[in-house]
Amino acid sequence: MIDRITFDPQVMNGQPCIRGMRLTVRRVLEILATFQDRAVIRREYPELEDEDIRQALEYAGSQLDDKVVNLAKAS
User: Fold this and answer.
1) Helices 25-34 & 50-62, crossing angle to 10 degrees?
2) Which domains does the chain show, CATH number per domain?
């Protein structure tokens, strides 16, 4: 269930955000890529909860197209 990702045209131009804050899903992904230590993330972004991070990752993953490509073996 993804209930912490919000869309509001008045907040960040309607981009997917965390709980209506001015913190976009994209920014959360950038934070995770930059700060691999969750303790540092908690210190820098105290408003960001573990469930916010989990749902941001779930939402981002759901937006990617996952296609299976059959590769023919050469004889």
Assistant:
1) 110
2) 5-62 (1.10.10.10)
